[in-house]
Write a structure and sequence with these properties.
183 residues, alpha+beta, four-stranded antiparallel sheet, 4 strands, 45% helix
Length: 183
């Protein structure tokens, strides 16, 4: 990436002592009009998605579409193979015998639904993400073991000091500003 295309992203990182304090602070910051925030904790937080204002997950829809694709693919492949490509009359059964298609149809439905969920979650979460400006802060490593962190992107109209003061008033035990490249 050349020097002309580098864009710096400034985040205010705040650590909270408990998951409840993190969720409450996130909710209050969102009510004050902050957007683009993210929370980091070693496990999923009850009420965290609602506090961030995230829409309902699209993963079930992705799984349904992938599963229906698997079902349609299995039935159409078997109907083509058994009816046109290589028809064999076994025991007088009809060419299009739906009960004999059940095992393969089930397996392909589950397989494609699982692939859809796996790749859908990776895509929706924008993973893998080898770099994020928050990774620059040494204390942020606690987010994988015992820390509860909130990142707030700095707005052009508001200084980082004002955001830091608001987070401290909400109970943050540690507040810092990190700057990193944004692709």
């Amino acid at each position: 990436m050349s020097a002309e295309t580098k864009v710096l992203e400034t985040l205010v990182l705040a650590e909270f002592a408990t998951p409840e304090a993190l969720v409450d602070a996130t909710r209050q910051m969102r009510e004050k009009g902050y957007e683009g925030m993210d929370t980091y904790s070693p496990y999923p937080l009850h009420g965290g998605s609602e506090a961030l204002g995230l829409p309902p997950s699209r993963v079930p829809f992705i799984a349904l579409c992938a599963g229906l694709t698997g079902t349609a693919t299995a039935i159409s492949f078997m109907a083509y193979m058994n009816g046109f490509d290589y028809p064999i009359n076994v025991g007088g059964r009809p060419i299009f015998s739906l009960p004999s298609y059940v095992p393969i149809t089930f397996e392909l439905t589950v397989l494609l639904a699982a692939f859809g969920i796996f790749f859908g979650v990776l895509g929706l979460a924008r993973l893998p993400q080898p770099y994020h400006p928050a990774y620059e802060h040494d204390a942020f490593r606690s987010a994988t073991t015992h820390g509860y962190w909130l990142s707030v992107p700095q707005f052009a109209t508001l200084q980082a000091d004002a955001i830091m003061d608001q987070l401290k008033s909400l109970g943050a035990t540690q507040v810092t500003v990190v700057t990193g490249e944004k692709e």
